[in-house]
Design goal:
By secondary structure, the chain is of the alpha+beta class. The protein is built from six helices and four strands. Strands 2-1-3-4 form a four-stranded mixed sheet.
Length: 121
């Protein structure tokens, strides 16, 4: 992509076993789940509609990757979850793991993403 865009990276792998394990973990012990981005943007079975609507209305495109996909594509070892702004081929972290862990609600996450877009875009 030539236009700047956001890259949201989950702290979860994309394979079926990981998906099932993550589902069970979120259901049985949500307070110890390792991906705050997943916890805020997904319900038990699918992406939250409020989040989908927010992402569709962003002024830049957004892509979503699991950690295994991110590692294969970019070869970076970054604490996840994280949100990056990609311009040309350069990635810049705009929300790191501690910033995402600080978000306690979907509204907090939306506010943080919007603020960072104003700062970096």
């Amino acid at each position: 992509m030539k236009e700047p865009h956001l890259v949201f990276v989950y702290n979860a792998d994309s394979d079926l076993f990981s998906t099932v394990t993550d589902f069970a973990h979120k259901l049985l012990s949500p307070s110890t789940y390792a991906c705050q981005l997943c916890a805020l943007t997904y319900g038990h079975f699918s992406e939250k509609q409020e989040w989908k609507t927010f992402v569709q209305q962003l002024p830049v495109k957004a892509v979503f990757l699991h950690k295994d996909e991110f590692t294969r594509q970019f070869g970076l070892d970054t604490p996840l979850p994280a949100v990056f702004l990609q311009k040309d081929h350069a990635l810049e972290v705009i929300l790191d793991k501690p910033a995402l862990e600080h978000c306690s609600s979907l509204e907090d996450l939306k506010r943080a993403v919007s603020h960072q877009l104003k700062t970096y875009a």
